[in-house]
Amino acid sequence: MRIRRVLLLALAVAAGALALPGAASAAYSDPLTTTTKQNLVWHATPAAALTALDNALPNVSLNTVVNDPSYAMTGCTTAEKAALPKAPVATKSLCWDADRAGSTTWVPQGITTSGDADDDGMWGADKIILSGWHGTDALGRYNDARIQAINYDDPASAAHRMMYLAVPNSTGSSFSAAQAHMGGMAWYGDKIYVTAEGNTSTAIRVFSTKHILQLTDTTSNAIGKTSGGYAAYTYKYAMMQIGYYTYAGGTCSMASDTGVPCFSSLSLDRSTSPASIVTTEYFSDQSLHGRLYRFPTGTDYLLTGTASEAFRSSVGNMQGVLSHDGKWYVAHSSATINGQLWAQTTAASTSATCGATTACWAIHPEALTYDWSTGLVWSQSEWSTADCAAKDQVCGRAVFAVPLSSLG
Q1: How many CB atoms within 10 Å of residue 109?
Q2: Paired residues of 144 in beta bridges
Q3: Where are the beta strands (DSSP E) in 196-303?
Q4: At residue 306, what are phi and psi to the nearest 5 degrees?
Q5: Which of 43, 112, 192, 217 gives 20 to 30 Å between its CA and that of 275?
Q6: Pairing verdict, β 106-113 and 202-214
Q7: pTM (2 decimals)?
Q8: What does the pLDDT read at residue 189?
Q9: Do the strands 33-34 and 309-312 form a parallel or antiparallel pair, or are they unpaired?
Q10: Residue 305: which region, alpha, beta or left (left: phi > 0; alpha: psi -120 to 50)?
């Protein structure tokens, strides 16, 4: 989630006792506290609409998409490497081609992998990383959403193909752009969960790898049914929404930490039985304290909609969230320095240190995801090299991983 260039107080002492403006008694080192649970309501896309589009267009697998790459991932530049965590040190990293690395029209946010999706950590024969991006004001389609599907079978030659995210109309005669900030993603079975937008009633959008369509009009700068077939702004592939969750409490608020929460990020926790989706919320105002929620999965990899846990964290500016074996991990971001990664329970809150600070995580970090098959936690950084340079910072966009065991 882009911090709109607000100067944030993010320095912390080695013990992690960071006092928050307006809340002198609160510190990042404070443990989690329980809070009120918030539930979700499911709204399914009409099955007939999905069937109509599947019949109108070639329906392809995600394996087809990642084995039809259009752009190569690259090694990271010096500036991009500077965005990587100081502690713990990244053991894997890769960076984008020049257009993605410098894009002002699209911004990276959520991340998930085939280590979420399937028991063997693969999707079919492929190792896959999915990176979620949202459109910017410069695009003219703010919060349109796309996924960069990375073939990671051979890390040395990783490459990706872009897919647009779309919402079928009620009959399946056309579709429109899905509105999602993409602050978090989770992939479980054929379902792909993404966070929607703040200050609305829509919490999570759900897509399916069973409904990836190959578009027949790849020249029109339009989306949906066209005179030339079906288009998504010249993209070759689009993935259809199969439903969405709304907040049971109504419209969420990004200005209140006591009202209905706006989910800013999410991830999958496979260590629970059944597996669960965990979420967090983001506030640029550090006097507000974000909440964490857990939602168990039910049949067909969908959520039950009833929260099983709810906590409040004293960590400010939470961008990413992860939970594993009863411990929660939240990524804090700063507009000016490295972020922080905190491991939290109701008994303690700790962070790695580097020198006399806990500001050791990536610069402008985003979501978190855990690949249980490899033991690696993946994340990515948001700002382009040009964004960083404009603020006299040395950093850039990178996708990276650290061992879960190194997070404390």
Answers
A1: 28
A2: 179
A3: 202-214, 223-226, 229-232, 237-247, 265-269, 276-280, 291-296
A4: -105, 120
A5: 43
A6: unpaired
A7: 0.94
A8: 98
A9: antiparallel
A10: left
